[in-house]
Design goal:
The structure is a single chain. The protein has 178 residues and is of the alpha+beta class. The protein has one domain: Trna Endonuclease, Chain: A, domain 1 (3-Layer(aba) Sandwich). It has five helices and ten strands; from the N terminus they run αββββββαββαβαβα. It has a six-stranded mixed β-sheet, sandwiched between helices. A two-stranded antiparallel ribbon has the order 2-3. Strands 6-9 form a two-stranded antiparallel ribbon.
Length: 178
């Protein structure tokens, strides 16, 4: 019998890393991380304080961080293989990242390539045109040209800053502060 896999914990490895370093940055006074929890609607109660719930609405991007007086809004995404599919970034999340930049903030994706266990911060400016072209094709029912529905790992390596065991603060400062 084939085991059914759950998508409920997708990205938890990346989110744990973001939270771990966020706590460290707060303790040292280097940055302040805010995690946006999705709003949920209680459906029914189970035993022992457990319950069934569903997300009420489309959520905003996962995090905001304040670094050296600058606000950065970002979403955390994991992907397997050699490409990050644009279908993993929902249109409402992309729109929120764009709106945040329009009012003077900075926006990015935190990506984890699970096959190589590599962590990246890629600014919205690096991929927004590719995403908009892909989304336009999707909305009008056109098929995207080969390679346009995702970002290759080589593109990510060229346009993002990779972060490591020291965390992501240096990457954010390189992209948005210095």
């Amino acid at each position: 019998m084939k085991r059914r896999s759950s998508y409920s914990n997708r990205g938890m490895g990346l989110e744990k890393m973001i939270g771990f370093y966020g706590s460290r940055y707060l303790a040292t006074g280097d940055a302040y991380l805010i995690k946006h929890e999705p709003s949920v609607r209680h459906i029914k109660s189970l035993k022992y304080g457990q319950f069934v719930a569903v997300r009420q609405a489309k959520g905003q991007p996962d995090y905001m961080i304040l670094v050296d007086g600058r606000a950065i809004l970002f979403d955390a995404k994991e992907f397997a293989g050699s490409r990050f599919p644009f279908s993993s970034l929902h249109r409402h999340q992309f729109d929120a990242l764009m709106a945040f930049e329009r009012i003077g903030g900075h926006s990015a994706l935190f990506l984890r390539a699970t096959d190589s266990n590599s962590y990246f911060v890629i600014p919205l400016s690096a991929f927004k045109l590719q995403f908009m072209n892909w989304d336009r094709c999707r909305q009008v029912g056109e098929k995207s040209k080969k390679g346009q529905a995702s970002l290759s790992l080589s593109f990510i390596r060229e346009n993002a800053i990779q972060w490591d065991d020291n965390g992501y603060l240096a990457a954010l400062k390189m992209l948005f502060i210095n």
